[in-house]
Each structure stands twice: as structure tokens, then as C-alpha cells.
Amino acid sequence: EVQLVESGGGLVQPGGSLRLSCAASGFTFSSYWMHWVRQAPGKGLEWVANIKQDGTAKYHVDSVKGRFTISRDNAKNSLYLQMNNLRAEDTAVYYCVNRDLDYWGQGTLVTVSS
Amino acid sequence: DIQMTQSPSSLSASVGDRVTITCRASQGIRNDLGWYQQKPGKAPKRLIYAASSLQSGVPSRFSGSGSGTEFTLTISSLQPEDFATYYCLQHNSRGTFGQGTKVEVK
């Protein structure tokens, strides 16, 4: 059974940091690009970042460039999103996604508030 | 960055209606586009990939068309379970979602 399980969300103050993790199972994790997608409360979907199979290429949406970094550890079948200098507008549910196979995690909520 | 303009933002329809949703890309994206359905509190589910290919298990009343900059999702006969929000996603260059279309009961 395919599973993508996100963790690491929570409440953080503006300017703070969080590291999201996504544990993958049920498919060959190292064979696929992986993505982070977020959805602010009551809003639409926003693509955040993606990373190549071997981690040698990674891309981020302009609104998070310089603050967020996507990474992966294929030995641990894990995807990460390091989020620094968080802002209120980063408040959202963050999904770990295998777009090719259309696998989505259940999402983890990040709330940025003082 | 590639921008995706999706229209309409919402529509009201009845069971049995034909529904059409459009996405326009700010530059050509070949057929690097998917259509997604999202219901409240759930992760999105892909309906169409490569602009016009039906995802396995998705009813044939859903269809996609287009290439380059203009894309369309059509639901040929709306069913009760189709009331949801729909998004396009381009993956030609990084990724961009359309703003979404909420399909509501008329």
C-alpha cells in the first residue's frame, strides 16, 4: 500500500523555522521527482517546490525562494521541507506529493502566528 | 514564471448538465497539464493527465482537451458526486495551479 505521511507541522511565530518531513512507502521513492504543495485555509492549491530523483535539481516557487529548501534522503525514503523566516502568509496545509503517480499525503498544518 | 488563468471561478449547475472549465497558460506548455478534483477536507485527486488522458478509474464523463496555451476540462453529464472544486496544474516549468473552479448545486 502506498503511503505518504507528513509530519513536523505546528504553530510557530513569525520569523521562526520548521522542518517538514514526509515518509514514503509502497513505491520506489528514489525513482520519482517529489513535490510539496500547500493550501492556505479556504484558498486554492499552490505548488511550492520539487526535487529530482537524485536531489541534483530542485526548484521553488518565487514566494519561498531563499526561505524554504526542499531536500530528500533516498536511503530513508524521506522528503523534507526546511522552512525559515516564516510569515503569516505561509500558514497552510502542506502536502507531500508524487505527481507522476498521483499520490498525496494527508497534509500537515503549519500555522504562523504570534 | 508561467501563470495559469482558470475560469470560471465558480459555477452553478444541475445533475445532468454539461460543464466546461478552461485554463489558459501565459506561455506555451505543450500538453504538460493535469486536471484535479478536490472535495472539502480531502487531498486532490487527478482526473486527467497530459491534457487529455483519462486517469485510471476516473469515469469517462470527464474529458480534457487542448495543447499549448488553451485547455478545457469537460464533464459531459454532471453527477451528484461531481460537486467539488477543480484545478488545473501545469508542470512544464516548475508548477502552477489555476485559481480553482467551484462547481455548486444550482
Question: What does this molecule look like?
Answer:
The complex is a heterodimer of chains A (114) and B (106). Chain A has 114 residues and is mainly beta. Helix content of chain A is 0%, strand content 51%. In chain A, strand 4 (34-39) and strand 5 form a beta hairpin. Chain A is globular, with a radius of gyration of 13 Å. Chain A starts with a strand and ends with a strand. The mean pLDDT of chain A is 97. Chain B is an all-beta fold. Chain B contains no helices and eleven strands. In chain B, the strands form two sheets. In chain B, strands 2, 4, 5, 6, 9, 10 and 11 form a seven-stranded mixed beta sheet that branches. A four-stranded antiparallel beta sheet of chain B has the order 1-3-8-7, with no helix packed on it. Chain A binds chain B through residues 35, 37, 44-47, 50, 59, 61-62, 95, 99, 102, 104-107, and chain B through 1, 34, 36, 38, 43-46, 49, 55, 85, 87, 89, 91, 94-100.
The helix count of chain A comes to: 0
- Unreliable segments of 5+ consecutive residues of chain A: none
Helix-and-strand structural type of chain B: mainly beta
Distance between the termini of chain B: 36 Å
Q: Give Rg of chain B in angstroms.
A: 13 Å
Find the biggest chain interface: A-B, 17 and 21 residues
